[in-house]
Design brief:
Layout: E1 2-8, H1 13-16, H2 30-43, E2 50-53, H3 57-70, E3 77-79, H4 96-103, H5 105-113, H6 125-145, E4 150-154, H7 156-167, H8 171-175, E5 185-189, E6 195-200
Parallel strand pairs: 1-4, 2-3, 2-4
Antiparallel strand pairs: 1-5, 5-6
Helix pairs in contact: 2-3, 4-5, 6-7
Length: 201
């Protein structure tokens, strides 16, 4: 059996300002740092053989704070853009409320919550899954099958792609599913990647 923990980064400064962030490399807000500390408190007593994060500093900082708070040291760590947040294209940097005024609430809702409709020059959740899942299967699955414990600190949409994959959710199910910032989601998995147990810590 192996443990896999998915951890969505804490609140970023652009989350606080209600902006579309995507691949823009913004930092954690003070609240986000506190959320990362609380996540670390929930991780106490666990052991990780490997850690992964995206190429974006808000996820990397969340991982660093959480592991430090948990007293978990010297975990081999990899950063990869395959785990980056969904690319929001032309919407990046725009205020969400102003964007709704410009394009209409319904259109913005479709861009944000549909499975396979992408914003202009951006990615849909389906597109995001198509880069996250191959990386997960090639880089992380062999380690899980070998019984290694893994933590992945990443983003709402890249992690939702993994939740969909692990829990065999349909597109309709995943678009209604949210991961809270700074709340670790723990899976116990067997060597065939079957979910034995899942819970939010």
């Amino acid at each position: 059996m192996a443990i896999l923990v998915l951890l969505r980064h804490g609140q970023s400064v652009w989350n606080l300002e209600n902006k579309f962030t995507g691949w823009v490399d913004v930092e954690l807000s003070d609240k986000g740092k506190e959320e990362a500390k609380k996540a670390g408190d929930q991780l106490k007593g666990l052991h990780f053989d490997y850690a992964y994060s995206s190429a974006l500093k808000r996820a990397q900082e969340t991982l660093k704070i959480a592991l430090n708070e948990a007293g978990i040291k010297n975990v081999p760590t990899k950063f990869d853009k395959a785990l980056n947040e969904r690319m929001y294209g032309d919407l990046q940097g725009l205020n969400k409320a102003e964007t709704a005024k410009k394009f209409g609430d319904e259109q913005v809702h479709i861009w944000r919550r549909s499975y396979d409709v992408a914003p202009p020059n951006g990615e849909s959740l389906k597109d995001t899954a198509e880069r996250v899942i191959p990386y997960f299967e090639s880089e992380i699955v062999p380690k899980i099958k070998a019984g290694k414990n893994i933590i992945i600190a990443a983003h709402g949409n890249s992690l939702r792609a993994l939740v969909m994959y692990l829990e065999k959710m349909t597109p309709d199910e995943i678009i209604k599913f949210e991961l809270a910032t700074g709340v670790p989601r723990l899976y116990e998995l067997d060597s065939n990647l079957h979910v034995l147990k899942v819970k939010n810590l």
